[in-house]
Amino acid sequence: MEDIRLNVPLLRQRVPNLTSAARSVGLRSATVSNLCTGKIPVGRAEVRTLVALASLAKCSLDELILIGEEIEMIETGIKTLDLFAPLVKGGTAGLVARPKMGQLVVLAELFYRLKQQGYVTVLLKPEGDHPEIEDVAGDAEIVCNSVDEAFTQISNIGSTKDVVLSSDRSHVISNEIYNLQNRLHKSGVVSLTTLLVDLKGEAIDEGLPYGPLETLWQFDADLAVRHIYPAVNPVLSTSEIIEGADTDSLHQSIGQKAKKLLRRYKELRFLVQVHGMEALPNAETQTFMRGERLEAYLTQPLYVAEAFTGTAGVNVSLQEALQDVQRILDGDVDERDTKELMYIGRLQ
Questions:
Q1: DSSP code per residue over 291-308
Q2: Are residues 193 and 260 in the same domain?
Q3: Which domain CATH number covers 150?
Q4: How far apart are CA 230 and CA 298, in angstroms?
Q5: Which of 45, 220, 278, 281 is 20 to 30 A (C-alpha) from 307?
Q6: Does residue 326 contact residue 258 with C-beta atoms inside 8 Å?
Q7: Which residues of the chain fall short of a pLDDT of 70?
Q8: What is the pLDDT of residues 282-315, one digit of tens each?
Q9: What CATH code is carried by the domain that includes residue 47?
Q10: What is the 8-class DSSP label of residue 24?
Q11: Phi and psi of 150, rounded to 5°?
Q12: Number of domains present in the structure of the chain
């Protein structure tokens, strides 16, 4: 997949506190975030914005803008992630959630699945007492208690295997995680994918909680309260893979149509909650029902939760998920009961 995009790793390295730095030169945090994830294509960005970012990073525009480089997706088999905000291989993904929304379950699930694909999974534990992280530690091959330990362990792996590293936001605020990424790159670790979580739940209130990201997974309190898991908001989550794709991309096309449906469904759902189904305009009833079915289909049994749910985890390939979502959009399952679509793999 070729594109024109920002050199996000360079920005991370040169501008540690990008939120404050961007504001200091008159840039909106949301604009910078959307440029980093590809939600705003670089080709549509104002020249003054790009010049300001280049100035902050103390680099030329040629260094800031990458042309024709391939972005590779890590397929996780988790429907809502692969469809709407795919994980970028070698990039940095941020999970934005308050406590109890299921972000650590998703992190543990990613560790479990990526280990099956041959990735080495590394957990960098934050300082202090965080007993909740122990559940994730069981699914990590390597657990490190310091940045220096993580550097040593990952350096020993070198370029022989792909590495997935998870860290807490505390290491982002201190800039240790980006220094670690830079040190590892210089030491010859060529494929390091980083997953960032926020154990304190403060990231959700920040414009750029982790600085520049290739993938952003925004968790949703409403989904979590209704036990719609993974509780990742498909509308607000973003990735360079989708946002920076060619307009003819089937993945992008189906994803955009599904997001549009879910966005309208959420608006209609609020109306139904307050006034009941009878308040729905006739023309909107079909939209509401299909949105409800799509939301149900995006739930998924996870392997790491089998002991708690009693349901076996399932893997759904991206192509299978795209076919299923297209069927829902086309109305092929309009007669199915919504409950039949909850916590399944593929449509039968």
A1: HHHHHHHT----GGGHHH
A2: no
A3: 3.40.50.300
A4: 8
A5: 220
A6: no
A7: 1-3, 68-69, 244-248
A8: 889 999 999 999 999 999 999 999 999 999 999 9
A9: 1.10.260.40
A10: H
A11: -65, -40
A12: 3
